[in-house]
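I am still getting used to backbone structure tokens and would like to learn alongside you. Would you supply a protein for us yourself, any chain you care to pick? Start from the sequence, derive the backbone structure tokens from it, and show both lines together. Go ahead whenever you are ready, and we will take it from there.
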Amino acid sequence: MFPNFLPAAVKQLTEPTSIALARSIQTIAIATPLTNQPVTTTFVKQGCGGTPILLIHGFDSSVLEFRRLLPLLSEDNETWAVDLLGFGFTDRLSGIAYSPTAIKTHLYYFWKSQINQPVILVGASMGGATAIDFTLTYPEVVKKLVLIDSAGLAGGSQLSKLMFPPLDYFATQFLSNLKVRDRVSRIGYKNQSLASVDALCCGALHLQSPNWNQALITFTKSGGYSAFRLGILSQIVQQTLILWGDSDKILGTKDATTFQKAIPHSILTWIQDCGHLPHLEQPQITAQHILNFCGSV
């Protein structure tokens, strides 16, 4: 059975990993300073032992992004994935200024209430920028950092220029078009066969969540994640693993070496024959690199 808070379209999932992860999604009410109301937050927790691993998804995505990676990591480690504030299936309450600052505040209070011990923080794409921002703000929370084809070296989305009525509505309608999402998905993979109907369902299921478009408009108007200055990145003291698909057509490959040079205690590992989504395209290899990194001194 699927959780009743997920949209009915969840029944269209066909791949076993997608179905299993969707069935394991839970909710918890998280109190934060952002609003007087607790934020009903969606997350997945699997496994036990080791240093907890916390997975952070990308832009306009959800915990379903980790449907192939999370089960591999959780065989020997307590592993979490959480829907960021304004994204996934986490409640989008009115009155919250959805922005990077709000996201890391919500993430901190989720961590504090549910995990409350240092974690290995893994961020993919925009989730990498979130992970960097979180690590710089709450260094005591992050034991090690993993960046997967991470955003953070370019400025905010150009969509922010369109986020005024009525163009803001039309922009989100464009992004919710399944044909558009399918085309974007195909750019993310080197192996085009992975841009399946199931993958499209996983990537679009959260669009049916209440206030999806309003929260996305607000976040985009905030400017999103600005480019981190190299001097700021040099303040990251944690050991950092940078994983990057060698055929990334969304962010390219230059940023990988820039991150490696800017972050002091970092190593760069290329994921061969892979696009922007190593955790979906090469999950076994990606998981093994993360697990090896978890166990290194």
In short: The chain has one domain: 8-295.
